[in-house]
Amino acid sequence: MRKLLVILFLSTLFSCLSNTENKTTNNNSDPATGIKPETIQPIENYFVEEKDSMLIPSFEIKLSLSDSAEHLLRTRKESVIVKAYYSGVPKDTSAKDYKEWGKIFLPSRSIELMQSRIAKFHNIKISKETYNSLADKNIEVLINVFSGRRSTENNLLECNILQDKISNIRDKSFTLTGKLIGE
Predict the structure, then answer these.
(1) CA 104, CA 134: separation in Å to the nearest integer?
(2) Which value, in Å, is the radius of gyration of the alpha carbons in the chain?
(3) CA distance 136 to 81
(4) Residue extent(s) of CATH 2.60.40 domains in the chain
(5) Which of 10, 85, 87, 160 could bridge 142 with an S-S bond, Cβ 3.0-4.6 Å?
(6) pTM of the prediction?
(7) Could you give the CA distance from residue 110 to residue 143 in angstroms, rounded to a whole number?
(8) How confident is the model at residue 45, as a pLDDT?
(9) Stretch 71-93: mean pLDDT, rounded?
(10) Which CATH number applies to 46-180?
(11) 124: how many CB neighbours lie within 10 A of its CB?
């Protein structure tokens, strides 16, 4: 009987997860996202629970750098860092970060690229305690790109950023462009 209940639970879970895909636009859709309001699922469905932590949804960042930036990076054997900063709104609004910034900062993740220009953000976790302390589970993601500072102490790149809610970023790929500072 227990096995049957587990199978039913997993079947229900997978069918719910497969129904969270975004639909395309119509006259009642949000112009910014193209998603009809009734197709947006609660953000809690996006996180996956793993023992004592919550797995943040995956996404991918592709870089498109100018020819001169690529040439200089290769000549100097310089890396590129793609950094994801995660933040959220806490239930406890007396936190120092919240008072100063209007949000609290969650663990960030950096990916260093040498030859590749694709950073895949996956298998990033936050503790259940941190997750449960958030008033809004639709955390914000800020992506910043800069040189690895292997050949000089200064950043060499000027790149676009990406800043959005995890509900708009999850399971997607984004291309950020960049060039040398002053180019």
Answers:
(1) 9
(2) 20
(3) 29
(4) 46-180
(5) 85
(6) 0.74
(7) 10
(8) 65
(9) 96
(10) 2.60.40
(11) 18
Asked if pLDDT for residue 168 goes beyond 90, the answer is yes
- List, for residues 25-75, the tens digit of each pLDDT value: 334 444 444 444 444 344 456 788 888 899 999 999 999 999 999 999 999
What amino acid occupies position 3? K
Decide: 172 and 58 in contact? Cβ < 8 Å.
no
Q: Which residues pair with 112 in a beta bridge?
A: 81
Average pLDDT, the chain: 81
Residues 177 and 159 sit within 8 Å (Cβ to Cβ):
yes
Instruction: With CA atoms as reference, report the closest residue to 17 among 55, 47, 51.
Output: 47
Return the residue matching tokens 């309001």: 37
